[in-house]
Design goal:
- The chain is mainly beta.
- 8% of the residues lie in helices and 61% in strands.
- The protein is built from one helix and seven strands.
- Strand 6 and strand 7 form a beta hairpin.
- The longest helix has 8 residues.
- The radius of gyration is 18 Å and the shape is elongated.
């Protein structure tokens, strides 16, 4: 959140949106899939996020909000499909099937 203010009571909130798309993501040279992350501020105190991992037989989504004023996270993690080969990529060979 970008905030310019002479005092907290007179804060001006500038809306923002941040999008990140990564195709053919790899971890330690192992294919993970495609990652899409979208973040925006809904209000001056609430930031919403939506992260999606697809491809390489994966279908995982993290979606929710972070409340800045209350320091609260409210997220849902939906793991429709997550392959062991993906985890192997992040552990650099420490996990094997």
């Amino acid at each position: 959140m970008l905030c310019f203010a002479s005092s907290l009571a007179n804060a001006i909130v500038i809306p923002f949106t941040a999008d990140l798309d990564v195709t053919d993501l790899k971890a330690y040279n192992n294919p993970v899939g495609n990652l899409a992350i979208n973040v925006k501020n809904k209000t001056s105190d609430i930031i919403s996020a939506d992260a999606l991992l697809t491809g390489n037989d994966n279908d995982v989504r993290l979606i929710g909000e972070y409340n800045l004023a209350q320091s609260l996270l409210d997220f849902q993690f939906n793991m429709n499909r997550f392959e062991l080969k993906t985890i192997k990529g992040f552990t650099n060979g420490m996990v094997d099937d």
